Structure to design on (154 residues):
């Protein structure tokens, strides 16, 4: 009995310690009929408390299994505390050249994570990430959710 309790507590503290690195983590699933509308621009506001630490900024994209497109065109703009805007256009790869899905799939749900910025210095202050897609049509189909995670790199 004590062994099981100790194992459980060890696992619990391991989970807690892993989550301490996350500065911001938000995932939106408000897509009616799994359609990410062209006009539905996602905005994520986060605050960096420390000075000149390194961070990873990761975009999360969940889609229906066997996605019909090999990539998704994204527009990402990061606004730093001084108001400086950094626009990026990304072609998010969903499948490799052989047609194999790049996401981790469980049943009909697939999760793909893309590092927008890796080991980058972020100054103290308020940031904004604005994310939209530039798919040719009124909506991007079979989208379950999108999100943003900002983690301190140790």
């Amino acid at each position: 009995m004590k062994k099981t309790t100790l194992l459980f507590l060890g696992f619990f503290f391991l989970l807690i310690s892993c989550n301490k690195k996350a500065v911001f983590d938000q995932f939106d699933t408000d897509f009616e009929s799994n359609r990410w509308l062209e006009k539905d621009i996602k905005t994520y506001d986060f605050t960096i408390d420390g000075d000149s630490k390194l961070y990873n900024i990761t975009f999360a994209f969940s889609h229906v299994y066997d996605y019909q497109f090999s990539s998704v065109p994204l527009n990402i703009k990061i606004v730093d505390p001084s108001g400086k805007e950094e626009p990026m256009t990304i072609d998010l790869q969903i499948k490799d050249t052989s047609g194999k899905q790049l996401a981790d799939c469980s049943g009909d749900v697939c999760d793909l994570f893309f590092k927008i910025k890796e080991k980058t210095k972020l100054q103290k202050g308020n940031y904004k990430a604005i994310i939209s897609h530039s798919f040719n049509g009124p909506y991007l189909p079979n989208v379950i959710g999108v999100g943003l995670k900002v983690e301190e790199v140790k």
User: Anything to note?
Assistant: Helices lie at 2-19. The first helix runs from residue 2 to 19. Residues 1-19 have pLDDT under 50 and may be disordered. Residues 23-152 form a domain with the Jelly Rolls fold (CATH 2.60.120).
